[in-house]
Amino acid sequence: MRDTDLLRHRLWVQIGLPLATIALLSACDDAANVKPVKVDTANTAKAPDAAKQHNADDDDDEDDDDNDTKAATKPARTTTDSASPGYVPPARIDDIPAGEFDYFGPARDPFTEHEEEDGCPAGDWCGTPENARKFAIQHVPEKMGCPSKIISQPDVVNALNKKDKQWDGLSFHPMMQGRLMTSVTTEKRAAGKTDICCYHWFEYCSGRPLLDGEDMIVAELREGSSWSCDPAKVAAPEDRPDSAIDPSVRARLAQMWVDDALMEHAAIAAFERATLELMAMAAPPSLLGEVQAAASDEVEHAMHCFGLAARFSGLAREPGPLGSLEPRVRGLAALADHDPDGAEVGADWIRLAIDTFVEGCVGETIATLIARRAQRHCQDPAILTLLERIVDDEGRHAGLAWQTIQWITEASGKHSDAVLEALSQQAQAMANEAERACEQLPPADPDAAALGRYGRCDRRTELLARRDAWSQLILPTLAAIAQTDTSEQGPEAWT
């Protein structure tokens, strides 16, 4: 059975969709209904045998043309000269020259041509300062006459001609964020393009994010180990010490796990804010209790991820303070006296539904599938144990988000149709972006097999998982909820 079939069955049983509906919509879900992807093989050479084997093992979940994928051969990164194509960023923060990086992270230099580091869809874009400011994060100081950070701006995106060449390379995904690449901008300007700003962006794709508008919030890193689990829980096997891992791969692993740790830490706050918003809309105790339990799960996830980050980096790091955010709905009590026609209440229901969908239904569902696929090649016992827990927990969290959507459609009364229409539009826009991202897949990552042994998916695998999650999990589930009477909740399917 395909992993998406299994996950969807568990998800639908948990949220109470009738088995007849599961069978009906599942019958329409096969590989033939997924559009084939194109793989960019221009100027590429034969992939290393390990990477080829890694891709061949994924045939059950990826298109057949994956077997023909070729990966770019890149020079070994052995130099510490930042001007060299083979530059390896320092592994310790104290060793990074002042001003060299716009943000800290071993093997995370966005200004050199190496493998994508985010574990989410990512890319680069250069444009005029005027165009960059359309996506600027407010109140963040500019650098070099350019916004320091950019994020997706739905109102701006909807008014753009996305096919215009000036936007080539930029993601319009609702979960995009990016940072200014100062060195690339300097280089482009020195070459004669004086009116330009260059950015490295990625699309958030891991678990439930903490959003402030369209901006994703995470804490800053600081020295400390209070958030790391007992090192014994994430230790390497005695017969396979981490010292045997290629240094550049080990640096990538360290940064991937610390990124996940910060996101899991922020997810705690996201669930706590969700509790306040649900209470403002008179949610039942069954939902509130599950949201609180989910926040507790994220504490454990964050501690294990920080523990793994410390294991691979040798650095003790923990999250600093995380800014508090106000609930995004005013609530039924606040609107009771001055909303006679229910327009503002309807807007609150729609806002709650969209936020729940983007943060929970999308984020948690994709995170579950990615973790499930990361399990397949993982050979590290401690990481495999963590991935098993994440698949279980994030699967329940995804089900909780979908249960919340069900409750909103029932509790919103006369606003239910407007809620479903808004969800449909949001889902289709995001699904289209996920599909477009797979129309031109990157070559196989030369380090894919090495990363896979330690529970990490390369960018190409992440893109395919996102596409599959949309076509085989998220869109079918939303359609089923819209078409089915879900007043009776099903049994727990994740225990």
UniProtKB/TrEMBL annotation:
Biased composition, class Acidic residues, residue ranges: 57-67
PROSITE patterns from the UniProt entry: PROKAR_LIPOPROTEIN
Biased composition (Low complexity): 70-80
Disordered as annotated region, ranges: 44-89
SUPFAM superfamilies on file: Ferritin-like (SSF47240)
Keyword Metal-binding recorded: no
GO molecular function, one term: oxidoreductase activity
Upper classification of the organism: Bacteria, Pseudomonadati, Myxococcota, Polyangia, Nannocystales
Organism: Enhygromyxa salina
Protein name: Putative lipoprotein
Gene3D superfamilies with a match to the protein in the record: Ribonucleotide Reductase, subunit A (1.10.620.20)
